[in-house]
Amino acid sequence: MFKSVARQTARQLGSRGSAAPVTRRYVHTPVAFDWKDPLGASNLFTEEELAISETAESYCQERMLPRVLDAYRNEDYDRKILEEMGELGLLGATIEGYGCAGVSSVASGLITRAVERVDSGYRSGMSVQSSLIMGGIDEFGSQEQKDKFLPQLAKGKMLGCFGLTEPNHGSDPGSMETVAKPHPTKKGYFSLSGAKTWITNSPISDVMLVWAKLQETGKIRGFLVERSECPPGTLETPALKHKNGLRASLTGMIQLDECPVPEANMFPEIEGLRGPFSCLNGARYGIAWGTMGALEDCIARTRQYALERKQFKNNPIAKYQLVQKKLADATTDAAFGILAAVQVGRLKDEGKAAPEMISMIKRQNCDRALVNARILQEVFGGNAVSDEYHIGRHVANLFVTQTYEGQSDIHALILGRAITGLQAFC
Ligand SMILES: Cc1cc2nc3c(=O)[nH]c(=O)nc-3n(C[C@H](O)[C@H](O)[C@H](O)COP(=O)(O)OP(=O)(O)OC[C@H]3O[C@@H](n4cnc5c(N)ncnc54)[C@H](O)[C@@H]3O)c2cc1C
């Protein structure tokens, strides 16, 4: 459905679409303030982008939202969700060909915003599939790898994950210990050994993009490990249970013990951290949009609650200044965050986005979403503790978004390095 809308509007607007011509207002008619879109960001979207956003929002509110409480309570991720998203053309949406929609970065941001409005865990599952594995294969894979994996991943029939973090190396992946060496008995194969941890989707992944150091050169390379091809005992992907955030997504380890991987499954050229960091850039851009969706949901729920809840002389608590300030702060941060994400998205499509811009919006939007969600939670009083009010779930999730794909302070160091020319990591 989504692909046909996208194609139709793409025909009208050109494949990437273009912003509607600006008409100058000479007559000053009063403009009503819209608390859901305070700075009028929707004026910056093309018709195609608006249609995609509408499709994604309807799917998420109608099909995902009813499942989220049970998923969160039971730490149970329904893999059918990725298949449903695949049917709508929501996976790997910026990729051209291979059954992907080939839409703008802003359109893909609107999709992540819609998904995270429901839950950051659902958005994480989608981001890993779309940006980390599909994006990686599209950018660095051989033609054979693209032909083999991308169409199935786009449909959500095959699930993927991205293994960079290790038990002893998170913020500093350059020190990773996972190693690839020529297989002692199988010609044309590498043997991979090592452990990755906190890997979204690993327990249910069919293909894993594992970053490992090639023993011969000491350089980091990307390997596509196919679960069905791994002999027993060479690959384990245990789930990490009892999380107190992101419970609607599955997280696990990847344990490799002399696992044979064909040479044809190594990314042909990319070496060093540029490979994983480039994939992470795409995902971090999505997180900047997604966290704004989560914050917008917190704002809408808090506003509704504050209008209905009455205290002192039967006044709705929304009437009190302290409550209004909380809503004003959060709404301002959400509006600024969306505009920044639109700007970086447009520059990204023009090839003008520096990675530090993505660090800036990932950090800022995650931080502001987390801080505001925690403050808005106060408006619910004791009811904030009940998961049926959803705000506590967003708060717990937003801690994770601020931590993964570069913890907030690490992005500050990336920006500090770019500002001063001096690196403060070690
Ligand atoms: C639910 C979940 C899902 C995840 N999914 C994935 C996934 O799919 N794939 C994947 O590869 N990883 C994934 N991660 C891992 C995530 O990216 C890491 O947790 C993150 O990079 C931080 O690494 P760490 O946990 O080892 O923390 P550490 O690196 O140990 O950092 C701990 C703290 O120390 C600070 N710190 C570290 N170094 C410095 C320094 N030089 N200066 C100042 N402060 C510093 C950090 O900012 C942080 O606050 C996931 C994590 C979670 C929780």
TrEMBL record:
> Where does this protein chiefly localize?
mitochondrion
- One GO CC term, this protein: mitochondrial inner membrane
Per the record, what are the reactions this protein catalyses?
A: glutaryl-CoA + oxidized [electron-transfer flavoprotein] + 2 H(+) = (2E)-butenoyl-CoA + reduced [electron-transfer flavoprotein] + CO2
As for subcellular location, the record says:
Mitochondrion matrix
Q: Where is the Acyl-CoA oxidase/dehydrogenase middle domain?
A: 161-259
**Entries under InterPro entries matching the protein:** Acyl-CoA_Oxase/DH_mid-dom, Acyl-CoA_Oxase/DH_mid-dom_sf, AcylCo_DH-like_C, AcylCo_DH/oxidase_C, AcylCoA_DH/ox_N, AcylCoA_DH/ox_N_sf, AcylCoA_DH/oxidase_NM_dom_sf, Glutaryl-CoA_DH_mitochondrial
Cofactor section: FAD
Q: Which UniProt keywords apply?
A: FAD, Flavoprotein, Mitochondrion, Oxidoreductase, Transit peptide
GO terms of molecular function: fatty-acyl-CoA binding; flavin adenine dinucleotide binding; glutaryl-CoA dehydrogenase activity
Classification via Pfam families: Acyl-CoA_dh_1 (PF00441), Acyl-CoA_dh_M (PF02770), Acyl-CoA_dh_N (PF02771)
What processes in GO biological process is this protein linked to? Answer: fatty acid beta-oxidation using acyl-CoA dehydrogenase; fatty-acyl-CoA biosynthetic process
Stretches assigned to the Acyl-CoA dehydrogenase/oxidase N-terminal domain: 46-157
Assigned protein family:
Belongs to the acyl-CoA dehydrogenase family.
Please identify the protein, giving its name as recorded.
glutaryl-CoA dehydrogenase (ETF)
